Automatic annotation (TrEMBL):
Entry protein name: Membrane protein
Domain VTT: 46-176
Entry's Gene Ontology cellular component terms: plasma membrane
Cell location: Cell membrane
One Pfam entry name: VTT_dom
PANTHER family, sorted: INNER MEMBRANE PROTEIN DEDA-RELATED (PTHR30353), TRANSMEMBRANE PROTEIN (PTHR30353:SF0)
Organism lineage string: Bacteria, Bacillati, Actinomycetota, Actinomycetes, Kitasatosporales
Family: Belongs to the DedA family.
Amino acid sequence: MTTAVHLSSQLAVNVLDARSLLSAFGVLGVGVVLFAETGLLIGFFLPGDSLLFTAGLLCTGTAGSGLRLSLAPLLVAAASGALAGSQCGYLLGRRAGGALLARSRSARLHQGARRAEELLERYGYAKAIVLARFVPVVRTVLNPMAGALRVPVRTFTLWQVTGGLVWSLGLTLGGYALGSSVPNVDRYLLPTVAVIAGLSLVPVASEVYRSRRDAKGEEARG
């Protein structure tokens, strides 16, 4: 009876909680979650940012949770899941067009699709594909959107690999660096993850500000 209760508790995984996912699936779970979040529309709700950062933190062994991950396999899993997922999403969009989004009833997903399309139109393929990596939901829907809009395969692949490596490895190494330098960082994990998620939006905010400033400059000259 005790064994059955213990087993059921192990199987009860909160897919919205990074630590729960890592405790249940470890490094392999990071690759699977990132693949689902960036490659499958049903994965738009998964916690990619916090998962990467928390996983990096747990590689230091200072989080006090008893769980410690290996950094090298984690980096490989994170990069592989992020890059393979994005490419898969693009290919699905190229084959199915807008039918994938049309079938979804999620208002959040459709809002993300509109933002993804705006990014592609405003900033062009290269910037939009890289910037989308740092925006939850948008990084899920931009990939099939790019496929449906027939973004050239080489262009998409080049920039999704660039953005994917910066995002996945950057957040993972950021968590590792913080865990290595701050004692008892586990006490501040939630606010730290919130700060990191905010910082991940800096590239997008900077680009929006620059775009608006340039537009005002053109209006003034006109």
